Amino acid sequence: MSDPLFWLGLSLLLVAVSLTAVLIVAIPACTELVRAARSVERLCDTLNREFPPTLESIRLTGLEITELTEDLNDGVKSASEVVKQVDKTLSTTQKQVNLLQKGTRRVAVGIKVAWEKWQRYPARKRLAIEKMTNEKSRG
């Protein structure tokens, strides 16, 4: 058994058996790899068809959101201006009411003073004035 040709032949036989075993095991693995490659190819085709429209619709949605945000900001600015105008109008109205109250008080004080003077005025002079007023209104 020390013949080198025997060992060479035995080792070649073992290599051949090992290669055969590897090929028998590798064939189903290779077919599964082919199936997986076809699935990946179909997935890539689907993605190539579906992604551009999806990305375009996402871009359009972003633009619409931007427009709505601008419209909302314009509405808020407009409402703010209206509130400022209402506030200004209210303060102006309040000032005018205060002036009217002062004027009304002055008129009321004037009427009160006139009434007091009228009450103090001698009765016969008052009757004479009333008589003259009545005669002028008739004639």
Model description:
- The protein has one domain.
- The chain is 96% helix and 0% strand.
- The chain has two helices and no strands.
- 0% of the residues are buried.
- The model has no long low-confidence stretch (mean pLDDT 87).
Helix residue percentage: over 70%
The number of domains is 1
Detail the poorly predicted runs.
none
Estimate the mean pLDDT confidence.
87
Largest sheet: none
User: Distance between termini?
Assistant: 170 Å
Task: Explain the layout of strands and helices.
Elements: H1 4-120, H2 123-138
Which tags fit this structure?
single chain; 139 residues; 2 helices
Q: What's this entry about, in short?
A:
The protein is mainly alpha-helical and 139 residues long. Helices cover 96% and strands 0% of the residues. The radius of gyration is 55 Å and the shape is rod-shaped.
